[in-house]
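Appendix B, record 7
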Amino acid sequence: MKTGIALLALTLSSCASLSEERRPLEWSSLGTGCYDRGLSEVLFWPDRSLEIGLTDIRIGRLPDTGQGPGMLAHFRRRLDGPFGQSTAPPELFLAVGDWKRTCAVLIQHSACPAAQEVYAHLASQSIPIGFAFDDPTAFTVMHGTIHALSVTDGQGNQTDWSFVGLDHPLQDAVARSLDKLESCAAPAMVAFQQLAEK
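Structure tokens (predicted):
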């Protein structure tokens, strides 16, 4: 009987530690620092790992394994009052990472010169539902760079989009936007490179 109880306790403790390891990060609460979790967590499962506020936009790009770090940008508008009013100045969360670890910087939206232009450009985009409908292919890309976008509109509806492939018009908009934000994400890139060298 004692052996059975010991085995049950061991099994339960291993389940608890496994669930703790797989528990998603609360990405919406992250600030400046480095974390032992990959960008893939928030790009592949945005509904489980990130709360996106009203008129927030989050974009990301993650290359295939071994192809260098990816980047994520989350425009946190801070419109979380009871009637969607601003509760604090807008913030920009920028993260650089791979499939295993991430370094980030959280800054005021106004501290990044390109932020206003990039946000306005992204807010004007539309997702073409019928992309490649006239020329479909059964070929599925198994390896490649993932581009992702998540947004919550002004009435609280969240949309999550991701793409691995070629020539999608939104893919280009995401990539160009991240390129324009790279200088603002430089401290996160430096921290990530130092972490990788250890």
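Remarks on this record: Residues 26-197 form one domain. The mean pLDDT is 83.
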